């Protein structure tokens, strides 16, 4: 797990924290330089989210212990742990949904805190925080962050702080029930935007295993692949344009594996969003791709442990 080339020239040159991203497919962790987001000692293991939540939690606790030992071997001073999870998480670090990672009622925060001071947040808020501090949202007062990959979610970022909502649920785009029209036969059916525009949905629509195959076919000019992308991005773009019209952000940052992929999907999604903005009213909103890459979640989780970060509540109370 050690990476000799990443070892700093001076011990304790910067502040470090552990960051762990618990996703539906994989668990990724590392030792994060809070000054620039550089990840030391990165490691990854499969989530196997079909298992009981206690088994996944045990794996993440063991990973945290391994990273703490790795930091010691690299002479990096680490005193906090940030964990982000692909579920709903309230402002006290309590996981309160069981869609993929079944941690409700397990007291995950207490178990991590027994190792070291810990902050737990949703994966979307963590990735948005990384973009706000070090990535595409840096220097932007407010922006809307969207992640498009295996799932779809988003969060508004105000003054560099991802908006929590009244209970920690201000990130759900994908699970709202909608009516969609089949592009082949015109039949309307009920479902979620994730069923149409996510990576697995795009692959299924084109009859392949991965979204990467669809993007490759589209790059070669395959009309069926381009049509599948146009339908997916048209539906998602409509939803995101509605959010943009409602929230009026200065920028919309698109992240996630599919959202950050170069080529047809992002280009079509960007055009769909812009096409759905208010007619007759000029909009300077920028639609851009995220820049922090696949480690945005674990980097943001580590950054969230920084005591200098203000919450939405603290920001409101100070104004």
Short description:
35% of the residues lie in helices and 22% in strands.
What is the second-level CATH architecture of the largest domain?
2-Layer Sandwich
Name the CATH homologous superfamily of the largest domain: ATPase, nucleotide binding domain
Biggest β-sheet description: 5 strands, mixed
What is the 3D shape? globular
Low-confidence stretches: 1-13
Distance between the termini: 45 Å
Q: Residue share in helices?
A: 25-40%
Average pLDDT level: 88
Number of strand elements: 12
- H-E string: EEEHEHEHEEEEEHHHHEHEHH
Determine Rg (CA atoms, Å). 20 Å
Question: According to CATH, what is the topology of the largest domain?
Answer: Nucleotidyltransferase, domain 5
The overall number of domains is 2
Strand order of the largest sheet: 3-2-1-4-5
Q: Which CATH class of the largest domain?
A: Alpha Beta
Percent of sequence in beta strands: 15-25%
> What's the helix count?
10
What structural category arises from helix and sheet content?
Answer: alpha/beta
């Amino acid at each position: 797990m050690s990476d000799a080339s990443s070892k700093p020239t001076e011990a304790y040159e910067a502040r470090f924290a552990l960051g762990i991203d618990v996703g539906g497919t994989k668990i990724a962790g590392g030792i994060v330089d809070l000054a620039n987001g550089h990840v030391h000692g990165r490691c990854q293991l499969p989530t196997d989210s079909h298992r009981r939540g206690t088994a996944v939690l045990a794996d993440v606790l063991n990973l945290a212990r391994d990273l703490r030992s790795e930091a010691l071997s690299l002479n990096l001073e680490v005193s906090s742990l940030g964990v982000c999870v692909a579920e709903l998480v309230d402002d006290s670090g309590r996981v309160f949904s069981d869609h993929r990672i079944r941690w409700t009622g397990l007291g995950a925060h207490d178990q991590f805190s027994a190792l070291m001071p810990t902050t737990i947040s949703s994966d979307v808020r963590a990735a948005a925080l990384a973009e706000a501090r070090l990535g595409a949202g840096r220097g932007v007062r407010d922006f809307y962050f969207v992640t498009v990959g295996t799932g779809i979610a988003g969060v508004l970022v105000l003054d560099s702080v991802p908006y929590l909502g009244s209970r920690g649920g201000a990130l759900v785009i994908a699970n709202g029930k909608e009516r969609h029209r089949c592009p082949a036969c015109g039949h309307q059916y009920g479902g979620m935007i994730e069923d149409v525009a996510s990576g697995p949905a795009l692959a299924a629509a084109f009859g392949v295993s991965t979204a990467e195959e669809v993007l490759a076919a589209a790059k070669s000019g395959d009309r069926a692949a381009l049509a599948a992308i146009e339908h997916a991005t048209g539906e998602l773009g409509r939803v995101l344009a509605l959010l943009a019209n409602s929230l009026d952000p200065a920028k919309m940052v698109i992240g996630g594996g599919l959202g950050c992929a170069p080529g047809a999907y992002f280009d079509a999604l960007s055009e769909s969003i812009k096409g759905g903005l208010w007619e007759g009213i000029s909009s300077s909103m920028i639609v851009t791709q995220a820049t922090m890459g696949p480690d945005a979640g674990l980097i943001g989780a580590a950054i969230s442990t920084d005591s200098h970060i203000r919450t939405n509540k603290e920001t409101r109370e100070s104004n």
